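for the recovery benchmark. tokens below, seq after
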């Protein structure tokens, strides 16, 4: 007899199976293709699919002096509403997380207020001493200016000195200075330089929000097992034309011509990670030209909708938002196996709904997909055996914990 049993149709990156999971003290203790007995049972509705808890490796939670844009509380509520069980907290906050004291303050806030689990990030820009002194879960490097304005004067050095995997925003500082509209060249040049640095350093590098076909192929052709990359839903589903119609769609890197978007889809199978780059700003800040798009509460549904239209497989969602983030960042205890945490994202792939940002938990108050009908919805989020979100309602107190990452850089091939 287990404390809890979850019964239904499970989806992993390998496919679908009917079965039951036995859970005790928040951990998976048995996986069965048949029935199991539990003191209590969760049986998601007919048609539902139970996925291992999805992870978003790129989230701006703001907070600190920008609580009007987003807080750890509102952002992580948005996460579990959108089926994201763990977020990577981006450190280009105000003040930025560039020293030990600010990092420790951030950890304290995350511990108290996060509804989802989290990985704690640290910003490296010429502060290698501080970077070595903190025990961050990942390090962020900006090659050119973005929100917050801090960027690396020496990317190679900052990447090399970071004690754990580095996520890099690859847009070239010099190109941006000459061409503030940030043409594809800004990204492509930076990606090529980052890939060259990775060849030499041979340490984990995750290239954020790749938006150009040329950038993508520069990474995949190098075939470096320690280099992963992310693509965002907005670069997969929107183009420059959408931005011309709606100035709120300003984002770095910018939305591209349709040709780039089509190339991303052509290489979809080779994309290791889908991440939102959830970047909330107030409507007022957007009016004043702030760059960034919120995405936590639409990303999983957009992928499910894409799968319902044959653009991708349902298994891709698990591979790119669970399996590969775990491999790239060396996350422990999150595998779908006995001994793993009982953390799940439950979706109904057949449910149709319309995007209404006024019902979202993020403070952003808008969405590029407002009014859009999607087929596929997150209906329940379970963290360590507790239902923390059901039918759009966040149910629990903030009980997120820090992800467990390896001590040394994980170099398992993606
Ligand atoms: Zn970002």
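predicted aa per position
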């Amino acid at each position: 007899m287990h404390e809890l049993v979850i019964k239904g149709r499970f989806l992993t990156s390998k496919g679908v199976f009917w079965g039951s999971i036995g859970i005790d003290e928040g951990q998976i203790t048995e996986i069965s293709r048949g029935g199991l007995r539990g003191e209590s049972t969760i049986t998601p509705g007919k048609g539902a699919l139970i996925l291992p808890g999805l992870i978003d490796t790129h989230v701006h939670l703001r907070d600190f002096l920008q609580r009007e844009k987003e807080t750890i509380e509102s952002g992580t509520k948005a996460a579990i509403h959108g089926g994201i069980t763990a977020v990577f907290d981006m450190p280009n906050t105000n003040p930025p997380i560039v020293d030990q004291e600010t990092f420790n303050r951030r950890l304290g806030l995350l511990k108290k207020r996060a509804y989802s689990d989290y990985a704690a990030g640290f910003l490296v820009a010429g502060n290698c001493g501080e970077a070595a002194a903190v025990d961050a879960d990942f390090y962020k490097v900006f090659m050119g200016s973005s929100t917050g304005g801090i960027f690396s004067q020496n990317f190679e050095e900052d990447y090399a000195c970071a004690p754990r995997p580095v996520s890099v925003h690859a847009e070239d500082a010099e190109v941006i200075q000459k061409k503030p509209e940030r043409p594809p060249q800004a990204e492509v040049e930076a990606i090529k330089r980052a890939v060259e640095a990775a060849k030499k350093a041979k340490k984990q590098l995750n290239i954020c929000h790749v938006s150009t076909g040329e950038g993508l192929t520069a990474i995949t052709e190098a075939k470096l097992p320690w280099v992963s990359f992310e693509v965002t839903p907005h670069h997969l589903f929107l183009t420059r034309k959408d931005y011309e119609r709606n100035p709120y769609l300003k984002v770095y890197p910018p939305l591209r011509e349709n040709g780039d978007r089509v190339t991303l889809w052509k290489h979809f199978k080779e994309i290791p990670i889908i991440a939102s780059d959830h970047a909330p700003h107030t409507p007022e800040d957007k009016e004043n030209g702030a760059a960034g798009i919120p995405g936590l509460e639409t990303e999983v549904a957009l992928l499910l909708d894409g799968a319902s239209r044959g653009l991708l497989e349902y298994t891709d969602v698990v591979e790119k938002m669970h399996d590969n983030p775990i491999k790239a960042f060396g996350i422990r205890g999150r595998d779908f196996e006995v001994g793993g945490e009982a953390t799940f994202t439950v979706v109904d792939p057949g449910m149709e709904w319309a995007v209404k940002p006024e019902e979202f938990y993020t403070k952003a108050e808008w969405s590029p997909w407002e009014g859009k009908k999607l087929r596929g919805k997150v209906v329940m989020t379970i963290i360590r055996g507790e239902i923390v979100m059901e039918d759009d309602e966040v149910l629990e107190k903030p009980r997120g914990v820090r992800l467990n990452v390896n001590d040394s850089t994980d170099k398992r091939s993606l």
